Amino acid sequence: MRKHIPGLLRVFALLLVILACSQTFLPSAFAGEGAGSSVISGEAAPAGAESSAPRLTKDDYPASSVVRPRVAVWMAAQMHLWFAAFVLAVPIFVVIIEAIGIVKKDERYDRMAYEFIRVSMTAYTLTAVTGVLFTVVLFAFYPHLMKYLLSIFKPTVFLYFLFFILENAALILYFRLWKRLKTGAGKIAHLCIGIALNLAGTAIMFVANAWVTFMMSPAGVDIKGAFQGDIWAAVHNNLWNPMNLHRFIANIAYGGSIVGSYAAYRFLSSTTEEEKAHYDWMGYTANLVSIGALLPLPFAGYWLTAEIYAYSQQMGITLMGGVFAWLFIIQAVIIGALFLAANYYLWCGLSRSEGGRRYTPYIKYIAFMVAVSFIVWFTPHTLILKPWEASALGGQYHPYLGPLGLMPAKNTAVNIMLLFTFLSFLFYRRANRVAVVSWAPYGKAAQAAIFSAAILNIVFLGVYYGYFANTVYKVASSVPQVATTLFAIIACLVIEFFIYRGAKEAGVYRWGRMPERSQYAIFLITVSFTWLMGLMGYVRAAIRQHWHVFSVMRDASADAFTPTIGYAANVVSVGTIIFMALVVFIFWLSGRKGADFGE
Amino acid sequence: MNKRFLKVAAFSVAIIAAYTLFSSLYVPPMKPEEPPSLEAVHAVGVEGLISLGEKVFKGKGACALCHNAAGRAPLLDNIMEAANTRIASIDYHGSAKTAEEYIRESLASPSAYVVPGYGMAGDELTSPMPDVTTGAIGLSAQEVDSVIAYLQRLSGVDVTVTGEAGGIDVSGAIEATTDSEGAR
Fold first, then answer.
1. Residue B172 has what pLDDT?
2. DSSP assignment, residue A434?
3. Residue A558 has what pLDDT?
């Protein structure tokens, strides 16, 4: 019976969601019956009032003496988003690993993939439970907003459920058939079920993203928020595509980090060399996927931000130049910590092979460059000073360090940090290999030339456009800088592939020969990712300021004010601790005896 | 509960604590702007109108976000004199005849004249400024009047706008410096 509990919980959660939503479709749901309910204020638009965004007053929001409505919604939303990222990300990771296992004909990949889909099963249940919780608190505390959104997005809600059912069906098949479809065509069919699972999961995310981005950049409605009838226009609003891409990539990075943490913990708990080797390898592979996805993430972020600016200059400036500017300093610190941890893990990995010693002298130079880039990245532009400090400094900006606070300097720093992290990876990859092709020295020279030219070009673009061109073109360097970084990474990888084709091993390569402290770098990455996701979720919602739906539906509740960054950090920290505790619970649950449902 | 688990948990909590303390102690405690409230301001005469205009300029109108020393948009200290020059320019596409009309027109149609160097990237003839009389900013006619009055005072010319500001909706005109933390 116990093994059926997660499945039963999921069915229960699905029924609750259907029940909650079916209530919203009933005409009487918001009819204002009873003392506790309220109707939309009398200031509503005259003609076509049914579909116009309602104008609310404080009395239109149900009060609660038990919880602060916004904090309750915030916490429920964040929990659901973390778990959703987990269950969207891990299957992507699992399918990739399963496919690699098929291609390489290596059982270890299959074992790792299975281990993780097993972990996901409990996470799916918690995702559904937090989803129900989120839906309930939204309808309880923001009924008019939900009614307005449903009046536009009702058809997509059905689509959401359709994908939800498909995803669950695919998940159950994928998990249950793992050991039956183990070879030949059966294995390929199994992989296809995994791909279907991911497609359904990604489609769910895209549908939900449409609702979220509509609230930020409404489309398909007139100036009063009246729906014009074209639901595709509402879905395909300005921020939908960039948000889809950004979240998709971020999920891969996050999934990798979660898997990495699991492996790190199991590594630390391992009692045999064989176990240590397995979990070391698992941690490395997960970290590779995670950092591989982290590299293009800032570029997806640029696109999202550029679209925010394109949609509303005011919203863009509020985000980057207003009160939230300091939030990006925090973001820089965390991403800097992520990169430092990722580099540190790779440097520790050099100890797995005898050949790794050849590259250890270079670590200090890479560390220096990453640290310098990190410092530039979190240098603030505007300093908050006391009057005497400002007078001593001669203004709000530091005379020498002030320019480093500008976006062009930060873009330059982050691109250089990416390239040096890539260099760490390149050294790690070739640590235990000796090239046998005759042109290897020329290939390496070409790589060095590409790398150096890329750095020079990135610095030139940043300095020229940032400080010697018209203000309008200040951030124009970001796209060619990104292109340079991507070109250098791809070109060096291609050359690397051919240089080390058929390479000899420099010595014995031992998985598991890693210092324990290296595993803490993986924990740092996971915790930082989780915390950062929470913080960025705050700013994404907060740039709407006092609007439920930007510019068409105002938030008139007592919680309409924008919380400070410090307050948001406290909420995010509490949420992170609860989430991480639940993740540990999931790991424990899936690791105990008898948890292997597939057998 | 073994020792290793506790070590990992303590390490994770320490990271979270470090980020929280950094955000709370290192980052300046800037209070975001108050949400606009529907508050009646009984502004009396020209001075009341100018005072309201300043609040709208720095608050709801979001003008000061760009029109500041950072150089994202031109400064407006001497806009009345500049307006007369711009109306006479061959690049001017609007229909204003006076400086007051020019400002009123610019608030609703910012691309009627784009100051060189301040257009959209790659399109110097289009202003990145939104129409502040609609959308997210949505200034009322009285608020537009008050902003013009404020800019006239800023330029040191006579205030010609005669809008009556008594009892109007000044959504968002409350200054960001208002301490709202206590109320929370």
1. 38
2. E
3. 87
CA A451 – CA A86 distance, rounded (Å): 35
Dist. CA B95–CA A199, nearest whole Å: 55
What pLDDT does residue B174 have? 34
A502 with A404, same domain? Answer: yes
CA dihedral B118, B123, B126, B129 (to 10 degrees): -50
Same-domain check for residues B23 and B53: no
The 3 state secondary structure assigned to A81-118 is HHHHHHHHHHHHHHHHHHHHHHHHCCHHHHHHHHHHHH
Judge if A462 and A565 occupy the same domain: no
Q: State whether A378 and A490 are in the same domain.
A: yes
Q: Which residues share a beta bridge with B109?
A: none
- Residue range of the domain that includes B10: 1-30
- Structural domain that includes position A395: 354-509
ipTM for the predicted complex: 0.82
Structure confidence at residue B37 (pLDDT): 54
Best of B2, B13, B15 to disrupt the A interface (most A CBs within 10 Å) is B15
Measured distance CA(A187)–CA(A416) in Å, rounded: 42
| pLDDT tens-digit readout, A138-188 | 999 999 999 999 999 999 999 999 999 999 999 999 999 998 888 888 999
Mutate to test the interface with B, among A561, A567, A579, A583 (most CBs of B within 10 A): A561
pLDDT digits (tens, 9 = 90+) for A560-580: 888 889 999 999 999 999 999
- The nearest alpha carbon in chain B to A470 belongs to B117
For residues B8 and B97, state if they share a domain: no
Q: What is the CATH number of the domain that holds B64?
A: 1.10.760.10
A309-364 confidence digits (pLDDT tens): 888 877 887 887 767 878 888 888 898 898 899 999 999 998 888 888 889 999 99
User: pLDDT (tens digit, 9 = 90+) per residue, A491-522?
Assistant: 999 999 999 998 888 888 888 889 999 999 99
What are the tens digits of pLDDT across the range B92-144? 888 889 999 999 999 999 999 999 888 887 778 888 888 888 777 778 888 88
Number of residues in chain A:
599
Whether B113 and B81 map to the same domain: the answer is yes
Reduce the DSSP state of residue A548 to 3 states and report it. strand
The distance of A521 to chain B (nearest Cα, Å) reads 10
Percent helix / strand / coil, chain A, rounded to 5: 75, 0, 25
Q: Which residue in this structure is represented by tokens 């324990």?
A: A516
B136/A577 touch (CB, cutoff 8 Å), yes or no: no
Let me know if residue B49 belongs to a domain: yes
Of B15, B29, B65, the CB nearest to A564: B29
Which of A43, A313, A582 should we substitute to test contact with B (largest number of B Cβ atoms within 10 Å)?
Answer: A313
Please report which confidence band the pLDDT of residue A32 belongs to, taking 50, 70 and 90 as the band edges. very low
Give the number of residues written for chain B: 184
- On whether residue A440 sits in a domain, the answer given is yes
Please check whether residue B169 touches A, CB under 8 A: no
A22 occurs within a structural domain: no
The C-alpha atoms of residue A543 and residue A547 are separated, in whole angstroms, by 9
- Tell me, yes or no, whether B5 and B60 share the same domain: no
- Indicate whether A348 belongs to any domain: no
What is the count of structural domains for chain B? 2
A55: left (phi over 0), alpha (psi -120 to 50) or beta: beta
Residue of A nearest to B120 (CA): A472
Instruction: For residue A245, give every residue at least 6 positions away whose Cβ sits within 8 Å of its Cβ, in sequence order, or none.
Output: A300, A303, A304
Together in a domain, A540 and A582: yes
**Is residue A256 in some structural domain?**
yes
| Six-digit token string for A246 | 């950004």
Task: Name the band, by pLDDT with cuts 50, 70 and 90, for residue B3.
Answer: confident
Radius of gyration in angstroms for the set of CA atoms belonging to chain B, rounded to a whole number = 23
The tokens for A279 are 């979990």
pLDDT band at residue A384, thresholds of 50, 70 and 90?
A: low
